[in-house]
Recover the amino acids of this structure.
């Protein structure tokens, strides 16, 4: 709790000035941001390797690092000023999370972070793009946890084909913090079940060519 309170203080002191949160968010940091993020821990298996994509102000990544020190956590953020903030907070709170600058869709980032157990994302992009960016970072059966709003079910249905094309299974909408938060956190959960259709097609084509070559 001491670490969470210090994170709250840091966001109050620097959040607006450094472009991390809007002015209207100061009075609802606990409910809307910190606790809202921390309850995502309910969905994380012990000792998971977790990537927080587009970490920004460190949400949900830093609350998760506080609540679950057993995690191997990487905060992925493309903007230099936000990367600097994340590194400062991790040092201030003596957390073990790692910060990397980059975007999930970049080749070198995918190579470094491939095989993760869980990818989290909060207010980053629609499910169509999230699936394309985040699912390749996961191991087979790994899970994408996308924090969403009231229209989560409609968005999931709308982007179902794109999620499947990116290698995702049938998603589901779950709520975290039920009984603890006045407004539970809504999360879209998508499991990685396959490689992308494009990649699978390349492998099938390669196999067909190999069979042809053996038959010559």
């Amino acid at each position: 709790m001491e670490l969470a309170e210090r994170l709250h203080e840091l966001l109050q002191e620097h959040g607006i000035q450094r472009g991390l949160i809007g002015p209207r968010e100061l009075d609802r940091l606990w409910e809307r941001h910190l606790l809202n993020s921390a309850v995502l821990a309910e969905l994380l298996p012990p000792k998971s390797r977790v990537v927080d994509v587009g970490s920004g102000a460190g949400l949900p990544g830093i609350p998760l690092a506080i609540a679950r020190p057993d995690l191997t956590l990487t905060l992925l953020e493309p903007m230099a000023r936000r990367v600097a903030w994340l590194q400062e907070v991790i040092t201030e709170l003596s957390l073990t999370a790692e910060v990397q600058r980059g975007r999930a869709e970049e080749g070198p980032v995918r190579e470094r972070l491939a095989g993760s157990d869980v990818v989290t994302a909060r207010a980053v992009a629609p499910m169509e793009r999230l699936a394309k960016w985040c699912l390749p970072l996961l191991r087979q059966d790994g899970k994408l946890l996308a924090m969403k709003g009231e229209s989560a079910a409609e968005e999931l249905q709308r982007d179902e084909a794109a999620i499947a094309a990116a290698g995702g299974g049938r998603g589901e909408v779950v709520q975290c913090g039920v009984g603890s938060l006045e407004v539970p956190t809504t999360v879209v959960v998508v499991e990685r079940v396959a490689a992308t259709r494009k990649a699978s097609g390349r492998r099938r084509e390669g196999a067909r060519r190999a069979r042809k070559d053996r038959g010559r």
In short: The longest helix spans residues 197-215. Confidence is low (pLDDT under 50) at residues 198-207, 210-214.
